[in-house]
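Shape matters. As here.
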Amino acid sequence: MNVENVDKKESLEEQLLVSLEKLLSDYNHEISEGLCAGLNALLSAFKSQGVSLTRQNTEQPVLVFGKANLSRLLEKHIDSHIVEMQKVLHDDLNLDIHLTKSSLINFKLSKVSEYCDNLMNAARSVSLNIELNASYRIVSDLTIIRFFILNIYSLVSDFSFKKCKACFRKILSNKYCWLHKTANVDFYQQTIRVMKFQDLENKNFIENWKNKREWLGDHPNLIPSGMGQHKLMVNEQINSYKNTVAIPHDIYDLVKSFSQVDWKCGKNAIDNFIKSELPMVNTIVEGLTTDADSFSDYVRIIYKPNILDNRYETSTSELWFFFTLLEAEYWFKAEDLAKSVPDLRVKNTLKRDEKIIKLRREGMSLRKISNEVNFSKSLIEKICKNIRNQKL
């Protein structure tokens, strides 16, 4: 199942435009008219004013917006709608939710993640009141604003795409997602242990497509291997600035079946694929996608925090959705396998600690214990201190 690129790498600016256009296309009939007009105006500003590119090295061009200019554009085209939603939340829905203006984000990691999570939590609270949400479309408005911010951040920061080193989730940080980046040492060690149970062939396969996504962008054009690129361009009238990728016929037929014009057939294709090929994922998502009315809506539901919790993923590409499901299955299988195999390291550590405490109670000094169990004196002291704290 190798994937090969048949087109040159396009600029990050063009990838941004493709992603934002796709978002507007997906949400066009779901968001309020005022916000739709504002986002279209913002997109037009990006197209007309352009953005500056700088190169930290020859391989990785980094998209750079002047922060003052970017804040001005966000204030002009988005913030008025945020203020309006804030008023509805307080006056009509009586919800104690505070929305920060998008123009105030400094586009640092902590601020962006905090801002987007706040929008997500606000949307979740509003979604509980179906009647009022249908009247104001607040959930859809908050969701697309969050996706716009995430897309812009991924290109004004120093990377275009990253995933958690442990699992399948898209991240804003350097290594781990919010689930696998924790101060709990035991949980962190368990995560590392699960990683050792992952199938090496599957892991390498996933790493391969992760690298390709860096230069293909969030919404690549898909063609089956062997099909001429020019013929595809003519038949499907694809914009010339979008990337094209050739994939094996079997994968092409499968992923394209996910987004058929007849959505009922498309949904059945995804459901059947998950049920037959991804049993671990199926136990999590089964029965939760019945309300999906399109492929992009299906993807957004699967990525919600209460399901796969892939909260920072904005792409609804059939290809990346397919690979994310595969990687999720690999991770859940590794988790399940790790649970079924006893952790001998933990068992040996407990035996070691029991022996150290026994010797300490007998009055043996830390130095003599160190010589007895062949560990450093500082480690012996740390173990004794930890056990005392646990008792307290």
